[in-house]
Amino acid sequence: MERSVLTIASSNDLILLNPYRRHSKEARRTRYSEIKLQLNGMTPAEIVAKEKSLNRLYFDCGCAEATALGLAALAGLGAWLFFRPGGIAEFSTFDAATLVVGFFTASGLGKWIGRLRARSALAREVNALRTHLTAGTTPDRAPHAKCGHS
Hints:
The chain is mainly alpha-helical. It has one domain. Helices cover 55% and strands 10% of the residues. It contains 4 helices and 2 strands. The protein has helices at 25-29, 44-58, 63-83, 93-134; strands spanning 2-8, 30-37. Strands 1-2 form a two-stranded parallel ribbon. Strand 1 (2-8), helix 1 (25-29) and strand 2 (30-37) form a beta-alpha-beta unit. Helix 2 packs antiparallel against helix 4 (93-134) and helix 3 packs antiparallel against helix 4. It is rod-shaped. The model has no long low-confidence stretch (mean pLDDT 82).
């Protein structure tokens, strides 16, 4: 498996940032290690800022959300076990299993939420970049009829 830099040189190249494309056969063969922009019409500062944002969102795995939600579940379940009638003195293997299952379930949910958040933020970022690059040019799609109620 080779690692390479994904270079975006035009608005048509933005399709390469589609999160669903990462699961294609070609994308599995080539793992990108970094995203670089080579775009006209943007200042170097704008390009650096967009590269940082795109790299952060494209490679975000959801681990921060998974950790936060897992630890919150662990703290909540631990507090419930400590303050329940009988307290910690009646701690059993079932309670230990509840803590482990609760932690991993919450972590999995956090991972899913984190990846979903990153994917939607990446889509917004790509759409904003596409809009910025295609401003003042003719759209690639066919024109549509305007409403007659003007």
